[in-house]
Design goal:
Layout: H1 5-74, H2 80-106, H3 113-141, H4 145-152, H5 155-232, H6 247-295, H7 304-335, E1 343-345, H8 347-357, H9 359-364, E2 368-373, E3 380-382, H10 384-401, E4 407-415, E5 418-425, H11 459-469, E6 474-479, E7 483-491, E8 509-511
Parallel strand pairs: 2-4
Antiparallel strand pairs: 1-3, 2-8, 4-5, 5-7, 6-7
Helix pairs in contact: 1-2, 1-3, 1-5, 2-3, 3-4, 3-5, 5-6, 6-7, 7-11, 8-10, 10-11
């Protein structure tokens, strides 16, 4: 089964939604329990207030009942109206007390076992008190003061029982309310902790999903990126291998097919260039040889206008010959057939020889060419012919792109196990956008200002191949309008003492060409 990136994202999102729903249900359940506990705590506070009011009613009943009995004892009622008023007042207090007791008993807090037992005990004590006062009143009304006195004498026992029941109820109610309040506080802390755990789990799940997708995408794109980088550098052998069966596998398959086709086309192109270039060398050589014969006056001397036309033929034949040689060298380099035969080489001598060979062009533009070489340089381990080709390309480009009365500075110094050579000019420079591709095949810099300098776009590519074939490296630095600097390195001779006869011990800086008057 092929699970696409979109499918993975969908499954991950569904998993996160399911996890979130479970977490929400868990939290909602806890919130309900929290609400219930808070509601019970609030109810407990309300019932404690009612219990305290019941205590006030009981005390008031004891006080007024005692006064009424005392008034019966001394016959102090002025009229039946006063007696009725006192009776109504006691009944009102008893009704209020009984109402409060009923409300507390019916409440959630009153249904708790400790409160229910205390309420029952208080209710029994209240009923005994009421019966006591009613019996005393009844005996007085019947004219039995002795029995009334004996019955009223039991008040202290009933009062003690009532006081115990009230005190116990108040203590248990307050204690139970404190327990509920502490439980609500603990549950609140647990709820906060659980909410934090839920949030942490959700964040961890999201992070895990993102990391998984990132890892999957990174693994897929890494192979594709490496293959594209290889193609950009001219390597058409690398292929993308993906284990996962998703959109990237389809891209990889298409890319592999494209790279394979590009490799075939590159091989065809290289073979075509090699064969065509090789076949063109013979007719170009014949054209150059015929031009030389005509220039030497064979078979007959030429007129001035004929010599000018002949010079155009010779120049373009030479240019075409150089282009063919560059194409052949590039084809050999890509095929790995260009031979490098390193030996002990005096690199400074090669620099001088190349500067001398290019002197006519530099003198025509009134350029100053200088060499700055460190004294006592060791010899390079390089192919002298290939090093001459490298320097000819670099110095030729410098002369080509440097305006009249400019300056070209060459330097050579030792850097560890390598010789470092630089060619710096005061020409037009290289735009920043072209600098990374300066060594690509057939790449030519587009100058903002018109220039007559043109080339094949292969010289620097050959330089890069040759320098790297020696184990060195080459790079370019430039500021547009201020010139460019090309630097390359080649290894020195490994064995100490070898090639000492070619050590350079010249001056710190010298002119390689005398400027014309």
């Amino acid at each position: 089964m092929r699970l696409t990136i979109g499918g993975k994202v969908l499954l991950g999102n569904l998993g996160m939604v399911a996890l979130m729903c479970a977490a929400v249900l868990w939290v909602v359940r806890d919130l309900r329990r929290m609400d219930d506990l808070v509601e019970l705590t609030v109810n407990a506070q309300e019932q404690i207030i009612r219990i305290n009011k019941i205590s006030d009613d009981v005390n008031e009943i004891l006080y007024r009942g005692g006064i009424k009995v005392s008034m019966f004892q001394v016959g102090a009622f002025a009229s039946s109206r006063d007696a009725d008023e006192m009776t109504r007042s006691l009944r009102s207090r008893r009704a209020h007390r009984d109402s409060l007791l009923a409300e507390v008993s019916r409440s959630r807090f009153g249904q708790r076992p400790a409160l229910k037992y205390g309420l029952d005990s208080l209710l029994i004590a209240c009923r005994k008190l009421d019966l006591l006062f009613e019996s005393v009143e009844l005996h007085f009304e019947r004219g039995q003061p002795g029995r009334a006195e004996r019955t009223f004498g039991q008040l202290h026992e009933v009062d003690a029982e009532l006081s115990r029941a009230m005190t116990s109820l108040q203590e248990h109610a307050q204690e139970d309310a404190n327990v509920l309040l502490a439980a609500a506080s603990r549950f609140r802390e647990h709820l906060i902790l659980r909410a934090g755990v839920v949030l942490a789990v959700l964040l961890a799940g999201m992070l895990a999903m993102v990391m998984y997708l990132n890892r999957t995408i990174k693994q897929a794109t890494a192979g594709i990126s490496n293959a594209l980088s290889a193609v950009a550098s001219g390597d058409f052998q690398q292929r993308v291998e993906l284990v996962s069966k998703d959109e990237f596998s389809e891209i990889a398959e298409g890319l592999n097919a494209t790279v394979e086709r590009l490799g075939e086309l590159d091989a065809l192109k290289a073979d075509f260039l090699s064969k065509v270039s090789h076949d063109l060398r013979t007719p170009i050589a014949a054209v150059k040889q015929a031009a030389e014969l005509l220039n030497d006056g064979i078979p007959s001397p030429l007129k001035e206008d004929q010599k000018e036309i002949l010079q155009i033929i010779r120049t373009n034949a030479k240019r075409l010959g150089n282009l063919i040689n560059d194409l052949l060298d590039t084809a050999r380099l890509e095929a790995g057939k260009l031979e490098i035969q390193p030996e002990t080489t005096d690199l400074v001598a090669i620099i001088r020889r190349v500067a001398k060979s290019i002197a006519p062009l530099s003198m025509e533009k009134r350029l100053r060419i200088t060499l700055k070489a460190a004294p006592d340089l060791p010899p390079a381990y390089a192919d002298p012919n290939r090093m001459e080709q490298v320097l000819m390309n670099l110095l030729g480009n410098a002369v080509k792109f440097t305006p009249e009365n400019g300056e070209i500075a060459l330097s050579c110094e030792q850097e560890g196990a390598f010789l470092r050579c630089s060619v710096r000019d005061t020409g037009v420079g290289i735009p920043p956008e072209d600098l990374p591709r300066i060594f690509d095949k057939f790449h030519q810099v587009r100058m903002k200002r018109a220039t007559k300098a043109k080339g094949t776009g292969l010289g620097l590519t050959i330089v890069k191949f040759l320098v790297e074939a020696h184990g060195g490296c080459v790079w370019a630095e430039s500021t547009p309008g201020q010139g460019a600097t090309f630097t390359f390195t080649v290894p020195v001779v490994d064995q100490p003492g070898e090639g000492e006869n070619v050590r350079y011990a010249g001056t710190r800086e010298e002119d390689l060409e005398v400027r014309p008057d």
